[in-house]
Amino acid sequence: MSDLGTTSTTIDEERAEVVAQARERSRRGVTVEVIGLYVICISIALALAAILVAVTGGSWTAVYTAMLDGSIINSGRIGLTIGVATPILLVSLGTIVNGRAGLVNIGQEGQLVMGACFAAFAAARLDGPGPFVLVVAMLIGVVGGALWAGIAGVLRYWRNVPEVLSTLLLTTVAANLMGWGLRKEWLLLAPASGRANRNQVSEPLPDDTRIPRVTWFGNEFPISAIVAVLLAIVLAVVLGRSIIGFRLRMLGTNPGTAMRAGVAERRYGVAAMLVSGGFAGLAGGFMLAGGDFGNYQLVANFGAGIGFAGLLAALVARQRVLIVIFVAFVFGGLRTGSGFLRATGVSGRIADVVQGLLVLALLLPPAILYVRERRRALAATSARV
Amino acid sequence: MTQHDTIAGGDATSPPAIELIGITKRYGAVVACDDVHLAIRPGRIHGILGENGAGKSTLMKVLIGLVIPDAGEVRRHGTAIRINDPVAAAEHGIGMVHQHFSLVEPLTVWENVALGDVGRLDPRRVRARVGEISEQYGLEIDPDDRISDLPAGMRQRVEIIKCLRRDPEVLVFDEPTSVLSPAESEFLFNALRTVVERDGKAVALVSHRLGEVMAATDEITIMRDGRVVESLSTAEADARSLARAMVGREVSLRGDVIQTGSASDHVHRDRTAEVPVLRITDASARGRDGRVLLDRLSVDVHAGEIVGLAGVEGNGQRALGDVLSSLLALDSGRVEVESREIPTGRAGAMARAGVAIVPEDRHHSGCVLDFSVAENMFIADPERVARRGLMDRGEMARRAEALIDRFDISCAGPDAPMWSLSGGNQQRVVMARELSHDPRVLVAAQPTRGLDVGAIEYLSEQLRAAARGGVGILLISTELEEILDLSDRIVVIANGHIVGEMINADVDLERIGMLMTGAAAESGVPS
Predict the structure, then answer these.
(1) Residues paired with B283 in a beta bridge
(2) Domains, chain A
């Protein structure tokens, strides 16, 4: 390769060789390693959960059977899991977008709630054929989520407010805004005539503005699940292969170089936040119109932690779009499976702990891998200096 | 104030408070300090003068216990002592005010002074002591001021108070004026004078600024390449000889190289009539802290010409590189490429206008370590390897492969992550990318810093080849050798301003030295 013949060149070639070998070895090793890590972590979590259940007087076999029955084994449960996984997936997709730009959005829960509120408000006031109202309401939901995340984005670049804080704090604001809106008839509260009791709920969507549901192999789920998977595929292409994705990644990994290469930090950063919030807003809209979360209406605590579940799913998938489809399904399964836990006689709190342990088990391997990769990269960099 | 020989408290013959004898420190093959002798006497200010990398800082670190020398010893009043860490140094009465402040911004002055104390905190006593010291030395500072509200000059006073509170016998100042305005510098030197005159303390003042060393010190030691080249009393010194001693190296030998070497390939033409490819006019910029980075800087670069921007580090070179990387916006002045004004501070504007740059800190704005080599080749214009917005990985790899061959980059292939390459090869990737864009102007900022001899040779040849190809090159370097070796024309930067210009053929090292150290104006050298 080189005819300079200086020592440095030989050393470089040797190093290149070593690096190439290491990469080859690691490619084979990593898969085994990852699977191994998951097996270990999940086993520990299951064992701890089993001990906990047994100690508190429950039957751990019944607990695990219930989890599996509730999420995938019993007939129709897969459909339910898909329905729950759909908004989780959408939130994760948004999280990946802001993650690529090097921004941390942890307020998806609030953006999701705002999306649902915007969609509910629009659906109650728009006139026209049902499908048209549905589509427009969902798009307005996207706008709602995007605006909510956009506030944090603008604050970040205009006044240097850390987006980690602003997004999280705006979640509380969103929840309270929804609570307030659900007390005002001109905003979200359903007209008194349509309400069975004095609950603060929004007007249920009429039948023709609900998301159609399909049944595959005895599993019924809303078609929004298909939309979400298609969006995931589109996003995978945009982030992985397009110029926009390339620039976004550059901004996330090295803002200085990005600026020099023509990636305006403010423009791309705010755009990434808008897209991220938009996905969460769409998730909220789909929850409202999908039928797996309540009765096609807003209720108190509408978000139900789906925003946070989506954030976790993105972390577990280590920000990889296609893997997140699977992870979102697993997170959906954890929720639907937990529904059956109550029937085993295990107390609700213990059921929550069991679920939490399993989530931790899923989060640990990516965290371990991440820390180790950083350390390796650092070692490689410092070894050369 | 130029002469202080009559000052009470110390003279050139008084026994030294601290003496360094035969100090040698090696880092691998590099000798940072080579058999250095230095005597710091009570009641005197001792200036230690030298270029960047002359070994001044290493020597001071030996004194303060941050560096353990390979050979030699430190004596205090004639007895050998061991200084293994800064705590030991403090016990031996040596205190240092570092170039970079170590203050906690949200805390107040007295809180910062008290930091690191052990035992019960007595705010009233610390506050009183701070007031006492500041009054005693005319440092005028309110112990209750918050550090974040204070300008650089005041912050340095806090550092000085931190140091004086322990009542040291020897005070070491490392480049104390690098962050100060001229007025603040003057204030500092007055305070130092008080310290030595009244208390008979000894002060070591490390600096690369000839003017201030001439004005503020009693004795001067000049270092170059890790050795002491001259030691004399300030009264005997003259700026010219100091400048030569500091930068001169083997002046005649260097001159021979210039006459016979590569630089003579370029026949200097009078280009004043031509339209320059890069014209910077009256560029001024301030940093976020309000410090002046560039001060009405003007420079032209013509096609096919290598212009060397010489200067001591920290005089605006980095800011100039940032402006030409679109990272910094000018407060006033303009940048034109081929007579077209280019907006500053707008992402990608310079790159689009044809300004290529090999940045000073390639990890900050030259490459993305987490990207592959191929991706790094196309960060500025991925459009070239894309169709309808989607990047063609195959095409990108093929083109990258060609560049890897052409620029002789040693790596595992186009998909190798950038961080797996050595510094020299990373630099080649940056160079390959910038040159493959057919630039009008190439800005090379410290292009060979940290590289080995082979890589330096290679990059120099690339710069020459680019110039032959009609690119205008602005070479920003603190290595005078490099500037002399490559440039057709040399401009000298000091305090963000161009202070002098000459063609390489009639280079005057003395004058460059004077200009670089900002001494030209004071000593009345014609420019």
Answers:
(1) B297
(2) 1-58+359-385 (no CATH), 65-345 (1.10.3470)
